[in-house]
Amino acid sequence: MQHVPANQPLIIAVSRIVLLGGALALMVAPRFLDPGGLTMLTEFLCLLVLALMWNLLAGYADIVTVGQHAFVGIGAYAFYGAAVLLRLDPYLAIAAAGVVALIIALPAMLIVFRLRAAYLAVGTWVVAEVLMLAAGKLPNFGFGSGVSLPVAVAREFGARPAERFATIYWLALALAIAAFLSTWLLLRSRVGLGLTAMRDNEEAAGAMGVNLLRSRIVCFLWTAPFLGLAGAIITLQKLRISPAASFSIIDWTVFVIFIVVIGGIGSLEGPILGTILFFVLREHLATLGTWHLIILGTLSIVVILIEPRGLWGLLRKALGGDVIPVSHAARADFGKAEAP
Amino acid sequence: MTNILEIAGLGRRFGGLAVINDLDLAVDDREILGIIGPNGAGKTTLFNLVAGVLLPSAGSIRYQGREISRLSTWDRCRLGIGRTYQIPRPFVHMSVFENVLTAAVHGGGQSIAQARTQAETMLELTGLARDHNRPAGALTLLDLKRLELCRALAIGPRLLLLDEIAGGLTDAEVDTLLAIIQRVHAAGTAIVWIEHVIRALRRSCHRIAVLHDGAFIAVGAPEDVLSNAHVKTIYLGE
C-alpha cells in the first residue's frame, strides 16, 4: 500500500531546494575548484548526460542498448574530423558531432528496431564493436592507435590549461542542463505520457493507442545527438581520440548501466542519484583497482534484487511523490464533491 | 443496420494447436454481443486477434468495412476499438487519473489539455473519481477491473471488447456495471462481452455466442442459446 509520510510536502520541498542548490553550486564551481576538481566535475556532467539518455532508452522505450558507446565514439571522431581535418570552427565542430551522431542513428535504427529484448542488447553491442573496428581502419584518424588533438585546436578553447578546463566545464554543464531540461519536457509532453505508460506495461500502452514504434523512434533519435555532443566534449577533455578509449564499452555503456540501475531506472531522479553515487564510490574506491568494479557490480545486483526501480524507487516509496514532477494531476477539487 | 465487425474464416494456430479454427462472426454496430464458452475455448485469443496483439494464421477481420487484421494495436485503438484485459494490466506507477488520461490522449487522439475533461468524465462514470490520485498499483482487484473499463472508455470506443469484467462482483455491483454498459451502448458503442457471469449477459445482451474449440457452436437470442441442449452439455455441464 501507498504510504505517505505526514511531512511529505516539506520533505519534497527540501529535496527540490537541495536539487536546485546543487545546480547553482555547479554554476559557481569554476570559481572555487582547482583543475583536478573541475575535470572530475566535467566527467560527472558527461556521465550524467549518458545516464539520462540510457535511462530514456532502456527505462522508458524498452530499448535496452549495450551499444550506447558507439554514439560517444562517433561524436568523438566526428568532432576530430570536423575540427582538425575540415578545419571548421571548433565550436561548430562540436555541433557537427551531434549532427553526425543523429545522421548515423537513422540507418542504425533499421538494425536496432528489427530486434527485441536480449537480441537487441547483443545486436547493439555488435554494431558498436563493428563501428569501433571500422574507426580503427580510418587513415586520417590514426588507425588503431588513435591520434592526439593538435595543440592549436585545444588552444581555441583557452590559451592556458586553467582557462581551457573552465571552458570545457561550461560546455559540459550547458550540455547537461540542456539534456536534463529537454528530457524533462519530453517526459511531461504527450509523447512522454505514452512513454511512461510503456515503461509500466507495453502491451496495454499499445492497446490504449500509444504508438510504440513512433515512441521508440523519437527516443532513439533524441538520444543520439546528446551522446555525440558528449563524445565531443569528452574528446576535448582527453585531448585524444582512439578506438579503444572513444568507443569504450566500459566507460560509456557499462558504467552508465550501473549508474542507472543503482540510481533508479525509469525516473529522472534515478540517473542523477546514480551518477552522484558512482562518483562518490569512485573517489573512495579508486585505490582498490579491480575491486572497485566488483563492488559496483555486486551493488547493482543487490539493488535490483531489493528494488528493481533502484535507490530512487526505494526513496520514492518512502516519500510518496516525485522531486522532479513529470506527472499530470486532475484539477484540485476533482473527486472531492462525491459522497464518501 | 450495418456490421461494425465482420470476421470470416479466422484461424490462429500456436504450433500444431488450432486455438481459433475457421471462425465467422458479424457484430452489428448497435449490438451487445455476449460470448461464453469453457476455459480454453479461445475467447481471449479471439479478443487478442481483434485488438491486434496476435496476428491471424488465416482469415480476415473487417472493422467498419476495412480489413484490419494486419494493423498494429495502436492503430486499431485509434480507429475506435477499445478493450479491457481479463487480468488487469494497469500502468502501476502512474496515478489512476494518468492511466485514464493516457488512453484519452493517445487512444482518443487529443492534446493533454483536451483529454483532461474526457478522463474526468470517465472516472466519474466508473466510480473511480475519489481514487484518481492513487497509484494504480495500490488499487484492489475490483477497482483495477473498473480502471480497465474506464481506460477502454476513455479512448472513445465505437467497438468495446470487455473481457470478464463482472467476475467477483456483488449483485449490486453488477447492477452498477450493467447501468454503465447500457449508458455506453446508448451513446452509440457496439459491445462484445466475454463473461462467465451468465445473469449479467442474460440481462444486457441482444445475442449470445458460444465458443467451443475455437469456433462458435451457437449464436442467437440469450434465452434460445442458454436453453440449447448442446450448449448445456458443453458449457453449463448439465
Helix-strand blueprint:
The complex is a heterodimer of chains A (340) and B (238).
Chain A: H1 8-32, H2 35-60, H3 69-85, H4 90-112, H5 117-135, E1 147-148, H6 151-155, H7 161-188, H8 190-200, H9 202-207, H10 212-238, E2 240-241, H11 243-246, H12 249-263, H13 269-285, H14 290-306, H15 310-319
Antiparallel strand pairs in A: 1-2
Chain B: E1 3-14, E2 17-28, E3 32-36, H1 43-51, E4 58-63, E5 66-67, H2 73-78, E6 81-83, H3 96-106, H4 112-125, H5 141-154, E7 159-163, H6 171-186, E8 190-194, H7 198-204, E9 207-212, E10 215-220, H8 222-227, H9 229-236
Parallel strand pairs in B: 3-8, 3-9, 6-7, 7-8
Antiparallel strand pairs in B: 1-2, 1-4, 4-5, 9-10
Report on the architecture of this protein.
- The complex is a heterodimer of chains A (340) and B (238).
- With 340 residues, chain A is mostly helical.
- Chain A has a domain of 214 residues.
- Chain A is 74% helix and 1% strand.
- Chain A is built from 15 helices and two strands.
- Chain A has a two-stranded antiparallel ribbon.
- In chain A, α3 crosses α10 and α12 runs parallel beside α14.
- Chain A is globular, with a radius of gyration of 21 Å.
- With 238 residues, chain B is an alpha/beta fold.
- Chain B folds into two domains: 117 residues, P-loop containing nucleotide triphosphate hydrolases (Rossmann fold); 72 residues, no CATH class.
- Chain B has a six-stranded mixed beta sheet with strand order 6-7-8-3-9-10, sandwiched between helices. Chain B has a four-stranded antiparallel beta sheet with strand order 2-1-4-5, with helices on one face.
- In chain B, α3 runs parallel beside α5.
- The longest helix of chain B is centred in the C-terminal third of the chain and has 16 residues.
- Chain B is globular, with a radius of gyration of 17 Å.
- At the A-B interface, α8 and α9 of A face α2, α3 and α4 of B.
